[in-house]
Amino acid sequence: LLCLLASSVALGAPLQIGDTAPLFTLKVLNTEVTEQSYVNLNDYAKSLEEGGKKATFLSFFATYCEPCKRELPYLVELQKAYAAEGFQVVVVTIDKDAAEVAKAKAMVTELGADFPVLNDRFGIVARRYGVESLPMSFLIDQAGMVKMTNDGFGDDGALKLLTQSRMALGLPLGAPAPE
């Protein structure tokens, strides 16, 4: 059973709540924000005493994805609102073309994103996470466990992301929402 479970993650089956998030290291596009050339999931999924975060929100996107463009501004606001609480947003573009990757960087820079934007040009990490549509996001706790998965960004997307993020941080659900 363990071998079957391990092979399903390796083959790119979608991650489920309770799964261990696959570790990765990817190149940072906005190094002026992060002051790092590469980010590893281990940078965030570790104890608070070691500099980890209570919750890491990982979202895969592409510049051609309209729902992704609606999700990004909301992620910027979530990061601003909850960074001090131990919340970290990390977005990964799966754009392949250099011009599209540059466009992804420009999009997040224009939005004032202060979180790392990573490039998965060959889609290796996206396959390991089982990304089948965009945006696809995962909320990961400091132990590296998947606490939420979200496929798309519909009318209820902002509320779902806000609720799950607050729950992961141990915050009251009824507090006013970020803009």
Q: Biggest β-sheet: count, sense, barrel?
A: 7 strands, mixed
- The arrangement of helices and strands along the chain is HEHEEHEHEHEEH
- Name the beta content range: 15-25%
Spatial order of strands in the largest sheet: 2-1-5-4-3-6-7
How many strands appear in the DSSP assignment? 7
- How far apart are the termini? 45 Å
Key terms:
179 residues; alpha/beta; 7-stranded mixed β-sheet; 6 helices; globular
Write the layout of secondary structure elements.
Elements: H1 2-10, E1 25-28, H2 31-34, E2 38-40, E3 55-61, H3 66-82, E4 87-93, H4 98-111, E5 117-119, H5 124-129, E6 136-141, E7 146-151, H6 157-169
Parallel strand pairs: 3-4, 4-5
Antiparallel strand pairs: 1-2, 1-5, 3-6, 6-7
What do you see in this structure?
This protein has 179 residues and is of the alpha/beta class. Helices cover 35% and strands 20% of the residues. The protein is built from 6 helices and 7 strands, in the order αβαββαβαβαββα. The protein has helices at residues 2-10, 31-34, 66-82, 98-111, 124-129, 157-169; strands spanning 25-28, 38-40, 55-61, 87-93, 117-119, 136-141, 146-151. A 7-stranded mixed β-sheet has the order 2-1-5-4-3-6-7, with helices on one face. β3, α3 and β4 form a beta-alpha-beta unit. The protein is globular and about 40 Å long.
